[in-house]
């Protein structure tokens, strides 16, 4: 199923409804279809084999996605924050692409030899051509199931890899998680992630299919987010944990009278922050979503009822689920496996493996990376409880090996984040001649808080055994994270090693 069918269904079902942008002057479902058809004609006329998008999120993005789909070529949203060397290498993979970029990044695509339209030119040209375009004008016959979108992984641990998301993968995700036209005309979704993140792609498709208007916040600040929610009467929103932390800590008016549901994901959510948010907005339904680029976005969901039950239930097993990412979506299978591939029972920590039609697990130049049963190893570690709730414990590659003991940094980080003065933390393994690796932590504290490493180490030791207490604690102004909140551990290790500061309170 081509994703253009989702757009066609929206145009036929609620064509006059604004689905992109502000209530006044936004793009309707019918206009989205006709303008995408016009865009497909431009792409075909340029002889482009792909559409490279190098800009912030905005109306040009969904139009580029559906235009590329109608033209039978993939959309390639690119991270404009990459360095020149990475950008040039990535763009070299798409020499015959049509480029769409904002004015400040257009020269990067021109340097790569691409035909380039600015986002303003793109919107203007498809807008002018659209009135003469019917539903099928500009569409190119498509053979098989080509990639709809190619997303390059963040490159937090290595060079970015191109993940191929085919129409069938994306359509399966939408059909398995959203009911067609189930949103009221008044509903609006605010998305605060960049276009090169899978959540941006998934939210365009799922909100359109539901009939919900989508807005984007190009430059996030907690004050701007709160004001936009109120001004646009936003009912649904998506944030990453670092954003939610800043929102609930904001001073001034934090009221969100129209907000019904708030989804978060992309990185682990400190339990202290979600508990604070639940107390701040008791009428809002919170949703924790876990997924990867390779799985076409969400594969598990912890819904509003799960959140409320975990907060109020006396059963510790139920309360613990506030730290989970919920249960698998329909059509998604999850297995926890040992390093040798043996399936593990409930409660045992292992590698999270997933299968289903929405799972792409396909890389450019490599192919699909699945086993004989179609399971993809996410390289995340975690466990399932007896009722199928998934608990994620960080990346397998993040494991600290101190002596003969394997230590999950996420476990230590979760404890440290419970301290009332700690705003952010990163725990890593640093090379050590005696132990192989030693545990070091970087901490960001509230303004005015006392920076006492001994006190914080004692705090960790009360919850975990001494072998899991950091050897050194460094205090930084911020922890390196991507725009979507993912911790870049290698940058932490590099800086800690380069500074070579004396170990603080290393005694055990």
Provide structural commentary.
The protein is α/β, with parallel strands linked by helices and 508 residues long. It folds into three domains: 4-219, ANL, N-terminal domain (Rossmann fold, 3-Layer(aba) Sandwich), CATH 3.40.50; 309-397, Luciferase, Domain 3 (Luciferase, domain 3); 400-499, ANL, C-terminal domain (GMP Synthetase, Chain A, domain 3), CATH 3.30.300.30. It has 16 helices and 26 strands. The strands form eight sheets. It has a seven-stranded mixed sheet with strand order 10-9-11-12-13-14-15. It has a four-stranded parallel sheet with strand order 4-3-5-6. Helix 1 (4-14) packs antiparallel against helix 2 (29-45) and helix 10 crosses helix 11. The longest helix has 17 residues, at 29-45. It starts with a helix and ends in a 9-residue tail after the last helix.
